[in-house]
Every structure is written in C-alpha cells, then in structure tokens.
Amino acid sequence: MVSRVIPVDEFDLVIFGGTGDLARRKILPALFRRFCAGQMEGKSRIIGAARSDHSTQEFRDFVTESIREFNGGTHCEDGTLESFLTHIDYVQIDALGTDGWAELAEKVEEKRIRAFYFSVAPSLFGALAERLHEHGMADSDTRIVVEKPFGRDLASAKVLNAGLAQHFDESQIYRIDHYLGKETVQNLMAVRFGNMLFEPLWNSQYIDHIQITVSETVGVGGRGEYYDKSGAMRDMVQNHLMQLLCLIAMEPPAKFDPAAVRDEKLKVIRALDPVPQDDLVRGQYLADGPEKESYLQDVGDTSSLTESYIAMKVKISNWRWAGTPFYMRTGKRLKARTSEIAVVFKETPHSIFGPESGNHRNILTIRLQPNEGMELGVTIKEPGPGGMRLVDVPLDMTFADALGPDAEDVPDAYERLIMDVIRGNQTLFMRGDEVEAAWAWADPMIEGWEDRGDKPKTYESGSTGPEEALMLMHRDGRRWREIRT
Ligand code: NAD
Asked: Where's the Glucose-6-phosphate dehydrogenase NAD-binding domain (predicted)?
C-alpha cells in the first residue's frame, strides 16, 4: 500500500478568497479528496471567506460544482459529498474593512488547530494579518498559508514578510510553492539521500551538467494582462525552478526536518553566481495560424518586453558544484508539456573499446510530469555478432508501472501541502529568508534587462524555444535534451 492515511487532528481552515479561482480549481477539490480518503476527522470545518454575499447554502453549491468539475475522477462512496458539505461554512468578509470579522472570530472561537489560507492578492496579506490580530485570531496556535507570487522583487518580498512578521512567527507561516508538494519532487530527496548509489557521484567530479526543463504548450491565455507584469523569470524561475535546483544541489541535511532542509536550500541560493547577460536568453512566442495569437497579441501590447520563455546557464560557487553548470529553461507555447530534470554524467575517463565505440554517458532523468518517474540511461553492448558496439538503453521506472494501482492513490500537491499545514510540518514550504535570497539573486538580472530595454527573441509556437537558447548549449559543446512528453 503506497498511501497510508493518517488522520489529522480536528481543525478549522478558513479560506480567504474561498470563492476565487484557486479555491475552486485546487483547494476545495483537494480537501474533498482528503475527506474521501478518511484523513479529515470529526468536526473539522472549512470556512469560505470572501467579499461576495453568499449564504452558507450558496457556498456549498459552489463547493459542489467545484468538486464535480475538478475532482479529477476520484471515486468516493455514495453520500460522501453530502457528508463533506456539512463541514462547509461561509462568512462574507472584507479584508480591508470591518465587515464579517466579529462573525468569523466567533466561528473559530473553539481551541483547536486554526489555519487561515490567504488565497487572495498579495496586496491583502498585510491587511488580513492585521485584522486577524485585531480580532484575537492571531494566537500561537494559528497558522497562515500564503500563495505565490510572494513579491515581484526583493523589496516587495521584504514588505510582505515584514507585514506577516508583525503578528506571526516564522514557524506559523506556510509559503506555498506547489512544486514542493509534487510526489516526484519529494522523491528527489528520497533518491538522493535514501540510496548509497547516487550521492558519492553527486558532484562536479562525475556530473558534467544538469538540465532543468519546465515547458508548457499553452500560451498566456486569459491571464495575459497579469502575466505580462511578471514574465517567465518571476513567474517560474525565481520560485519553482529555483526550488528544484535547490533540492538537486543541496548538501545532505542532517535530518528531514524543516529547519535542516531549508537551511541547506538557503545555502545553495546564496552560492549562486549572478548570471551574466551572455548566459541568458529570453523569448516571446509567435502566432501559430489565425487561432493561436502571438505573445504580443495575447497580452494586447505590441511593445511588451516581457518574456514568455527564458533559458540560462547557472553556476553554483561551492566545492560540490564548481565546474558543473545548471542549464534551466522554461516557457510557454513550446513543443510539449513536460517537466524534467536531467543529470548528465561525464564520459568514462578512457574507453577500452576504442574510438569507434562512440561517446556514451549516463543520464539520470527525473520526470515530474507527465508519466512521473525516473530513467537511468546506461551503456550496454549492442546485441549480436560483429564486435563490441555500444548502445545506450534506458532503465525505466515509471512510478505508475512500478507501484501499480497504488500509484493512483498518491495525493496531489495541494492535498499533501494542506495536510502538512494542519500537521504543522513546514518542510515543504518556503521560508522567508529563502524567498528573499531568491529575489536577491534574480533582481539584478531583471533590472539589467529592464534598464537596457532588451527585446526578447522570438520563437515559433510549438518549437523548443529561440535559436539563441540552442546556442547557449552548443557553444559549451552540449545539447538540450529533446522536449517531449
Ligand atoms: P480570484 O480573483 O479568482 O479570487 C480572489 C478571491 O479573493 C475572491 O474570492 C474574492 O472574493 C476575494 N477577495 C478579493 N478582494 C477581497 C477583499 N478585499 N476581502 C476579502 N476577499 C477578497 O483569484 P485566484 O486566482 O483565486 O488567486 C488567489 C491568489 O492565489 C492570488 O494571489 C494568486 O496569485 C494566487 N494563485 C492563483 C493560482 C490560480 O491558479 N488561480 C495559482 C497560484 C497562485
């Protein structure tokens, strides 16, 4: 059995922004699935809190619709939804006003675990923290959960951190990066630190380079206006790709606990070199026929300099990684939707098979999506007569195959992370200093291209990105891995 369900203590979870898109698509269906799995015990309550005027019944109808649409095909026993709905409540509240706060305080009066999920614009974080404090809900049992984007630069991240720190200790703040809740991402740590096989080789002596790719096939769609203020660097690299890089590059923590893991991640971020202009490529997608418009059309601004694609060569200045670059790329409207990390080992120091056997190297690929799993490329003899010809074959471990039907029970990122909040386990959440360090690294690059007014390169929709990104690798005698599902 893969997913053993350990019920959590009774809790009150208040979702500020309970009627919003994130609550509808992710948070509410995730809670329902945990309920189905038997993890939500007894009298736990989920209280939607938002500006709009709804009765509890209307909010329950909203929850029902969200689950029907986004439940992901989870099968629950008959009557489970009705039973789940009895745990749902609603309060109309204004983060910036006085309405609804006394009512909310009354609802969560009972002494038990209390979590407040700030699923609203970050500009409201400070006001929410303040109101919770004013109405006596910011005690030591309280936890708050905040969503990305956590700032748009170091200065704004510091303001957000300071606003929360006025009333909450760092141990009460859960900054979500949903990548950290993904099963395969956690498996990165299990693979690295649960096996003897990899760790001795996990350094610049044996690893030539590492590639991190997160590619999407969709464009910015209806989010054009929002996205254009951010771009791939702020939206993806500073948070998600950075977290992946940290987990691959960090030193073994002494324990799998929040302080130890996050201390090690922070050391990685602080050891990152600034990325020079020449090691960075930004791009914008072109139109693909009349149906799929270009990035500039999608955002409705023909002079936009924001990137929908970014590739970069990142160096980590420490003993383990000096000399082993990390190549990262992410973008929209690319050839396939995939997220993977490829650890490319060095060639053997000497080939006993002679030059005609070709160049071979081991590549460990960790696939985050789709087909979560790992693959290790190994070199073997090509079968048959005719001498010693070598061929690379994959040792494939697709989790769905390896774990069988149990793999389907694996909770999704939001399920895991919300339950971790209730358990009080911060290991998979970003600490304030981590977020600030990541911005401190990203800011000079962003300021650089903004000050210079750099125009992103263009790339064909459905391609692997701009030509210049290929050159980033070619000039080092390396190649990007194919983007494929
Ligand atoms: P949304 O616009 O769909 O919903 C916003 C919610 O906030 C609504 O319930 C609204 O009633 C409530 N709200 C707005 N002003 C309020 C106020 N003054 N007082 C009380 N409630 C108020 O937004 P969303 O897409 O659900 O996003 C919420 C947060 O999550 C944002 O910070 C967003 O960046 C982040 N986020 C969203 C997604 C996503 O997929 N939607 C993904 C990652 C992060």
From this structure: 14-187
